[in-house]
Amino acid sequence: MLQILANSLLAASIYALVGLGFGLAYQVTGFLNFAHGILITTAAYGLYLFRGVLGLPWPISLALALMCSITVSLLLYACVFGPLRRFASTPLTMLLASLGTYVVVQNVLSLVFGDRIQTVQTGPVLEGVGLFGVRLTLVQMLTALSAIVCVALLHLMLQQSRIGRMIRAFADNPEYAAIVGIPGRRVLLVVLAVSGGLAGVAGVALAVDTGVTPGMGMHPFMIGVVAAVLGGNRSAWGVALGAVLLSLAQNYGGWMFGSQWQDAVAFSILLLFLLLRPQGFLGRAAHKVTV
Predict the structure, then answer these.
(1) Domain assignment of residue 147, given as a range
(2) Which label site among 21, 74, 92, 105 has the fewest CB atoms less than 10 Å from its CB?
């Protein structure tokens, strides 16, 4: 049972990273961006290329892998989503464009690297460390620590920094933010970079732990979106709490009913929250006022 709890918290680390990045971008862009999932894959293949193929040192490889996901995040908006927004495209059009973008980039990666699982060597395979009756690998412990640090840093940035206050103001009311002089373009660039970086951290962690495949980004993206909805995507700690609840439900549900039911459990919880508390754990209900 303790091992299931540990596995749940490790999975929650990935979901939280993805959900944080998605939720931050969604606040500013306002559409469900399926292409966010490809940022996970891009960072994973970046690590495989720089570390597994070129053999660069780990710090350089990790930094370049994160730069890959950040760069792709900025490029996709500049080349696809930005022009669509200037054409006043509907949210449905943006959603379909993002799904198409995901499929295209995934197939490009498949064409370049192949469909088989690629691995990033971290050295000799060692037995996990025993801790309070559970076994964890060094990679898993670093993943959990990275997630905690990212959640804390994002919370501090949004609540304490000037750019964080600008992001929150722009997310609440872009028109009023522009009137008072908040530079929307700078806010958007920062949000896209941070969102891509968070997805990149998740992609790097998955690449080292489980390997790299062209389709690896979609599942963590979908579950990360659910975690963002459960926690309320305006709260970093709320998304983290949603990820933990979701992962616990998945893993204990899989233990009780079989692993094939894990996703069914996750989306059942999503439906319940959408019906009973759509604003999430720490979100606030929106109030409409007519003047």
Answers:
(1) 2-120+130-215
(2) 92
